Structure formats: structure tokens, C-alpha cells
Amino acid sequence: MTMRVWRRVGRAWSGVLLSMAIGSAAHAAEVRLAVGSSSGPVADAVVSLHGATPSTTRSATARMDQQHSAFVPGVLPVQAGTVVAFPNRDNIQHHVYSFSQPRQFEIPLYSGNKAAPIRFDTPGVVVVGCNIHDWMIGHIVVLDTPYFGKTAADGHLTLDVPPGSYTLRVWHVRGEGAPLERTLVVPAAGASSTLQIALVPAKNDVRGTDRLRALQEKFRQTKGGTP
């Protein structure tokens, strides 16, 4: 086969692939969701749509920073197979770990970007803590679907999914009882749903004030830099 023919074949395949990509995007349906509770809109609720069979794992990256002695974001939804980095942006060290069954791990005392990222393959909720600063708690929600997101401050979230029947699940760190679950049929024209969940009261920040925390950190540094 001559080079000219190969070029024609390559252009033809490029056109086919582009048409497939455009067709796939055109057939996605918009799902508009609103999550609330008895006290109003609910932020940071993880909403996911699950098809009849679990999706394959995805090779993706995400990050959960440590900043001002807190995990940022405090709730991180990811698809199974995602590799998560834990950069430490504080001027003190942290000791990050998890005892959760879906992914147990430990990152001993470190600062900056020195820690190797962690891969999360098993669906479930992974509670992340710091062995030095007990108030630091984060949650990584590992999902077996690519169709998920986290509600904004107004409780709203929009997802683009292929039309079909899904199991809709809502998880929140303060959710009372089992996560909300229901069937949602998404037509080609899209769908919208308003969801109500029950929340337990928020706990007070056990750290005290930001000023007190700053003084504690300064005291530790004067004692030799120990967190």
C-alpha cells in the first residue's frame, strides 16, 4: 500500500472517530439534581448514577491537599482506579493514614510533595486522618461509575449521562442512616430530581479558634519543629 493510500485511510478513520465522539456527546442527557434537608440546601453531597453493571476502573488522578491543618477538599469523590496525591501545603508536617477497609494506607511524617500518591481500586468510603492532628478528617468516596459529582453550596449538581435507567445514590458525611437510593429513568430529553436527606447535627470544631491553632503551631516550631 502506497503512502498516499495510507494517508487517505488515516483521514477516513479520523473522520469516523470524530463522528463517533460527536455522536456520543450529542446523545448525552442532562440530569439536574437538587439535594436538601430540613434545614435547607445540602452542600458536599456525593451523588452518583449506577447502571445495570459496574463500570470498569478508570486511570485518573486527583488530589487531597493539607492546608491550614485540614484536608482540602474535605470530601473527594473519585472513580475506582484513581490515583490520589496528598500534597502538604502547611509549614508543619502531617502523618496521613486510613484504617478504612476499602483502602488502608499510611504516609509517615512528611511535608511538601514528597509523599507517593495512593491508588484507590475498591468502591467504598475511605476515612482519612492525621496521626498528629486528631481533628483532621477527610473522606474519599470511591465509586464504580463515571457518573458522579458533588453538590455546590446551593445543593445543586448537573450530570451528563447516556439515556437509560440508573440507581441514584446520595452520600453525605453527616447522613443519618443508610445513603439515599432510588431508581431514576433518564430520557433523551434529560431529567431533574429534588432529593431530601436526613442529616445529623454538625459537630463543633475541636481545634478551637484559628488564633489558638496558630499559637500552638508556633509553639511546636520553637520546640524543634515537631508537629
Give an account of the 3D structure.
The chain has 227 residues and is of the alpha+beta class. It is built from two helices and 18 strands. The protein has helices at residues 3-26, 210-222, and strands at 29-37, 40-41, 46-50, 61-63, 65-66, 71-72, 75-79, 82-85, 94-98, 105-110, 118-120, 124-130, 137-143, 148-150, 156-161, 164-171, 180-186, 191-196. A five-stranded mixed beta sheet has the order 7-13-12-9-10, with no helix packed on it. Strand 9 and strand 10 form a beta hairpin. The longest helix has 24 residues, at 3-26. It is globular, with a radius of gyration of 22 Å. The N and C termini lie far apart (68 Å). Residues 12-26 have low confidence and may be disordered.
Largest sheet: 5 strands, mixed
- The number of helical elements comes to 2
The strand order across the widest sheet is 7-13-12-9-10
- H/E element order: HEEEEEEEEEEEEEEEEEEH
Share of residues in strands: 35-45%
Structural class: alpha+beta
> How many beta strands in the DSSP annotation?
18
Q: Any low-confidence stretches, pLDDT <50, length ≥5?
A: 12-26
Query: How far is the N terminus from the C terminus?
Result: 68 Å
Q: Please tell me the overall pLDDT.
A: 85
The radius of gyration over CA amounts to 22 Å
Give the CA-based shape: globular
Share in helix: 10-25%
Keyword list:
227 residues; 5-stranded mixed β-sheet; 4-stranded mixed β-sheet; 2 helices; 18 strands
